[in-house]
Design goal:
The protein is α+β, with helices and mostly antiparallel strands. It has 3 domains: 51 residues, Molybdopterin biosynthesis moea protein, domain 2; 202 residues, Orthogonal Bundle (Hypothetical protein af1432); 68 residues, no CATH class. Helices cover 40% and strands 10% of the residues. The strands form 3 sheets. A 5-stranded antiparallel sheet has the order 8-7-6-5-9, with no helix packed on it.
C-alpha cells in the first residue's frame, strides 16, 4: 500500500483504503478498481491523494492512529464550533472534549505507535482535518515527554482548537482572535486559549504575535507549533509544495534550537516514520527496494524488500534486507512515481 497523488492515478489501480465523503459516507471502498470516472470524481471532490495497493508488496494492513469514524465525527464537531465562532455564538465544548478523550484513549491503547499514514482530506474540510492531525501529533509528543493524562488532555484541547481564530481571519491575527474566542469559555482550561495565542511563537523570538522566546512560550503552545508546522508541510494542498515525511522531519530537526525547543523536537520525532511502509527507496548500493516495516526506536533503519539489483534490473524474487542489521546500508533517496512505474513495467515483460 502506498499514497499516490490523485493526478498520477491510472485506470486498473486498486484502492487500498476506503475513501469517505465529508459526512462519513463511503465514497469509494477498499478494493475498488479505479476507472476514468472514479478518478475524475476524486479530482472534482478535491482529494489530493489516495492509498492504492502496491504492485511490489501487494495488500498490507497499516493501523491508523485514530479510527476513521472518530476522525470524521471530530471534524464535524470542529466545523460546527467554527461556524458558531464565526457567528459569535457561544461554543459548546463538551462534544469536542469527549472526542479528544476518545483520541487520547485510542493512542494510549496502542503502544509503540508510529504515524505512517496521512488521513485523506477533501479540500473543503482541510482545515478541520489539519486540526485533528495536530491534536494527534501533539498528544503523542506529550506522551513522549512523560506528561500525565490531565495535562495531555488539556494539550489536546488546545491543539485541536489552535486554529479556531481562522473562523474570523486567516491572517496572523487569527492567533489573537483564537485567544479571544476561547479565553472566556468556562468549560475550557484557559491554557487552551494560550495555545491558540502562542502556537506561532518561535523559540528564538522570531514568531508572532508577541515575539515570545524560549521558556516564555507555554510548553503546550510550543508542542502544538511543531505539530502544526510539520502537518502543513506533509499535507500541503499543492502537490508541488508537499514534502515527504523524511523531508519535513529534516526541516523540523534543522530548526531545533532556533524555531523549536530542542527537547520537544526530540520527543516529536520519536513518533513519525520518515519512510512509511510502501515507500520505494534507492539504497547507497543503488539497489531499489520498498519499505515493509519500520522499527519504533530506529525509524531511519527500516526493513526493505529489494525489487532491483544494483544495476536497476528488476528481480524475480524479492529478498528482504533489514537496515538495523546491515550497518553499511542506508537510504539514498526516494523514487518518484515515474521511476517506480518504469520498474513495475519491466517486471511485467
Amino acid at each position: 500500500m502506498r499514497a499516490l497523488e490523485t493526478e498520477e492515478l491510472k485506470e486498473s489501480m486498486r484502492i487500498a483504503r476506503t475513501i469517505f465523503d465529508d459526512d462519513g459516507r463511503v465514497l469509494l471502498s477498499s478494493g475498488t478498481v479505479l476507472t476514468k470516472r472514479y478518478i475524475r470524481k476524486l479530482c472534482e471532490y478535491g482529494i489530493p491523494f489516495i492509498y492504492i495497493d502496491d504492485e511490489f508488496i501487494g495488500p498490507i494492513e497499516i493501523n491508523d492512529v485514530v479510527q476513521d469514524i472518530v476522525r470524521i465525527k471530530t471534524v464535524k464537531i470542529l466545523k460546527q464550533i467554527a461556524e458558531s465562532a464565526k457567528m459569535k455564538k457561544d461554543i459548546d465544548i463538551k462534544p469536542l472534549s469527549t472526542m479528544v478523550s476518545t483520541i487520547l484513549d485510542d493512542l494510549k491503547n496502542v503502544p509503540n505507535m508510529m504515524i505512517q499514514l496521512m488521513d485523506i482530506r477533501s479540500s473543503n474540510m482541510y482545515l478541520y482535518n489539519h486540526s485533528v492531525a495536530v491534536c494527534v501529533l501533539s498528544i503523542l509528543t506529550g506522551m513522549a515527554l512523560g506528561l500525565d493524562d490531565l495535562k495531555i488532555k488539556t494539550l489536546g484541547m488546545g491543539a485541536i482548537l489552535h486554529d479556531i481564530g481562522k473562523s474570523l481571519s486567516d491572517g496572523e491575527e487569527h492567533t489573537i482572535h483564537g485567544f479571544e474566542i476561547l479565553r472566556n469559555n468556562k468549560m475550557l482550561n484557559v491554557i487552551a486559549a494560550h495555545v491558540a495565542y502562542q502556537h506561532h511563537e518561535r523559540y528564538d523570538g522570531t514568531g508572532y504575535p508577541r515575539q515570545l522566546s524560549g521558556e516564555d512560550i507555554h510548553l503546550f503552545a510550543a508542542i502544538t507549533g511543531i505539530a502544526d508546522h510539520y502537518d502543513r508541510m506533509v499535507s500541503h494542498q499543492n502537490a508541488k509544495e508537499r514534502l515527504y515525511p523524511y523531508q519535513a522531519l529534516e526541516v523540523v530537526v534543522a530548526e531545533s534550537g532556533r524555531s523549536f525547543h530542542p527537547d520537544i523536537v526530540r520527543a516529536f520525532t520519536q513518533n513519525i516514520a520518515p519512510y512509511p511502509v510502501g515507500t520505494a527507496v534507492r539504497l547507497n548500493t543503488k539497489v531499489v527496494g520498498v519499505v515493509i516495516s519500520v522499527p519504533k526506536n530506529y525509524p531511519t533503519r527500516p526493513a526493505i524488500k529489494q525489487i532491483t539489483d544494483k544495476h536497476g534490473v528488476a528481480l524475480r524474487v524479492f529478498p528482504v534486507v533489514n537496515l538495523l542489521q546491515e550497518k553499511t546500508l542506508f537510504i539514498n533517496e526516494i523514487l518518484n512515481e515515474k521511476e517506480r512505474q518504469k520498474i513495475a513495467s519491466s517486471m511485467q515483460r
